[in-house]
Amino acid sequence: MDFPGGLRADGLPAVLSDPARLAAVRATALLDTGPEEVFEDLAGLAARITGSGRAFVTLVDAERSFWKACVGVDAEALDERQNPVGQSFCYFLVGLEGEAFVVDDAAADPRTADHPSVGPMNIGAWAGYPLLDPEGRVLGSFCVIDDSPRAWSPADLTTLATLARSVSTEVHLRQSLTASQAAHQRSADLARSLQAGLLPPRLRTVPGVEAAASYLPASHSRHADIEVGGDFYDLFHTHGPNYAAVLGDVCGKGIQAAQVSSMARYTVRADTDETGSPSDRLARLNTALLAQDTPRFLTTVYTAFRPTAEGLTGTLALAGHPPALVRRADGHIERVGAPGTLLGITDALNLTDVPFHLDPGDLLLLYTDGAIEARPRPGTAPETTGALFDEDDLAAALAASNGMDATATVAHLTGVLDAHHGGWASDDTALLALRAAPTA
Fold first, then answer.
1. DSSP summary character for residue 234
2. Contact predicate 429/216, CB 8 Å
């Protein structure tokens, strides 16, 4: 194969020995470290979804491929969790400098037919995506192996790409936390960057739907040591004319809460090609959270919908989350959703799918509990029964926004909350609004 950076004297890609790349690999602090659940869980998820027998999270230096996670391989000792780089397909990903490498039949593919690992490692088919640092340097690979030749489906490859990004995000979060310990101010700035990384840089455009969102961290998080929040939201395409919106809140704060939040968001996205209702998808997320064995639980609302000529039709499920609010075009407010079990605690769930429909001009609001537990800064207002901004207050504020588009509605609600708590947010607050575009 031709590699952009040329070859070393041993015939392997020259970029394997690039000093900047090797420094980035060492900076992960993952080489020669034992198994960790977060990486094993993501590898296991890839193996289950693709139906392959083996899955790996690998760091690649100049001479070897080190398996930070290996599913389907009996390797406990550190010296068993690695092989020479020339005997690993991972060097293809490093040599391709960021491109995926997919092989349906390793023994027949001219790129791999003579590779020394095809027979000994019983590689029938191989698919992998690179693990990248923020500068785009290839740290290693996230790959799956099937014993027999097979055609990897588009859904398989989408899942692998999503989970590879999740692994890269996990590595970035760890490196960022280590760097933040050098200076408190730098740590605070970095924490805000990490929080932004848990949210989509911009909401996806959905035909016939206005969408807007906002996130406000708790005020005390901005002045303490790193306390990244666990609120998240996302809006994404699933299949055909169908889309999904998800919003959730991980218990607690800090890097572990951010890790759970990141894992939840990417797991839900990786599940888009699976069939099932919102409650089915939340049940699969619950399984993934329980497998991670984290002490964090999660409340969330999952909405599956499709735009139609008559507005927007969908179904939503609540997992320990407050009900969604619908603002009808005439200003009337309705609550949508049935109470459900929060996620990450038990495999005995009680989740209910509730259908809804938005006529043109109607708006659906999803929110975290920071929006219904807002209170003035302690000591600045008398303790009265009206100090807490509750669900009825939020419904009234939403009704007062009647006629506004999604962006203006979110801005209005943010302003109302700010006026109530005087710029001091007691908890993280996320809002996500979807409005069926009004007819001309």
1. E
2. yes
